[in-house]
Amino acid sequence: MQIDLQVGMPMELQTTSDLSLHQMVQAIVTVLAVINPVVCGSILLTLTPKLAPAQRRRKAVRVALSILIILIASALIGLRVLSVFGISLDVFRIVGGMIIAYMGFDMLSGRQTVGQATPTDDDAAASNSLAPLIMFAAGPGTITAVVTLAAVHTPDGLPVTAIVAAVVGAGVTFAVLLLAVGMGSRLGHGTQAMITRSMGLIVASMGMQFVLTDLKAFLSL
User: Fold this and answer.
1) Burial, 55: exposed, middle or buried (Cβ in 10 Å; 0-12, 13-18, 19+)?
2) Measured between alpha carbons, how far is 211 from 135 in angstroms, rounded to an integer?
3) What is the distance between the alpha carbons of residues 219 and 79, in angstroms, rounded to a whole number?
4) Three-state DSSP state, 50
5) 3-class secondary structure, 112
6) Number of structural domains found in the chain
7) Does a structural domain hold residue 17?
8) Range of the domain at 148
């Protein structure tokens, strides 16, 4: 009997460890999918057409830190904040999807005035120029994913899985943004304008997908 117990305990621990690793990988993949770092890199280029590579890198740092702060805060207190105001996740995603779709239509039409920041702009203008990118990367879809991960994997205590996924997601996004800055310095204004409109179509489509999917879920309640 002693032998059975000694053999069984490592197997149980291994199974628990494998399950935790699977949950962690699944959470990281989920967060990366909704952040979409590749699209974020393209958006950074379209929002900063007149900035030098060094200034774009500084903006990439600011974006990555903003994403990290928003997602960690969402993992820790996101669900409680929505509950205090009586807002469901479906409604939150619907409104957020409408905002993202509006930003996409702006990019598609070429109006996108928030992205025309110049090197002489003050800090407030610089922050405003990053708002569409931060809203896209750490918007309602990403926040909902992180909040859900925090609620499902760690109903009590510290949401380690959601926090690790947020850190990895922000780190990968930062790396892709830096890569995009390096590539963007070799692109002409015409190419960047074409990328802007292409990304606008994608962003608008994703925003509308949020709206339609969650509107259907909300109406079926």
Assistant:
1) middle
2) 15
3) 21
4) coil
5) coil
6) 1
7) no
8) 42-219
DSSP conformational letter for 76:
I
Q: How far apart are CA 214 and CA 152, in angstroms?
A: 19
CB atoms within 10 A of CB 86: 7
Q: Is residue 18 part of a domain?
A: no
Dist CA 185 CA 181 (whole Å): 6
- Residue 159 Ramachandran class (φ > 0 left, ψ -120 to 50 alpha, else beta): beta
pLDDT tens by residue, 81-132: 888 998 887 787 788 778 878 877 877 776 654 444 444 444 444 555 788 8
Q: Are 208 and 100 in contact (CB under 8 A)?
A: no
Q: What is the pLDDT of residues 42-94, one digit of tens each?
A: 889 888 888 888 999 999 999 999 999 999 999 999 888 888 998 887 787 78
- Identity (one letter) of the amino acid at 79? L
pTM score > 0.90 for this model? no
For residue 48, CA distances in Å to 43, 71, 145 come to 9, 24, 28
- What gap in Å lies between CA 66 and CA 49, rounded to an integer? 21
183 belongs to a structural domain = yes
Q: Which residues have C-beta within 8 Å of that of residue 109, sequence separation ≥ 6?
A: 200
**Is 204 within a domain?**
yes
Nearest Cα residue to 178 out of 46, 54, 71 = 54
Query: How far, in Å, CA of 179 to CA of 184, rounded?
Result: 9
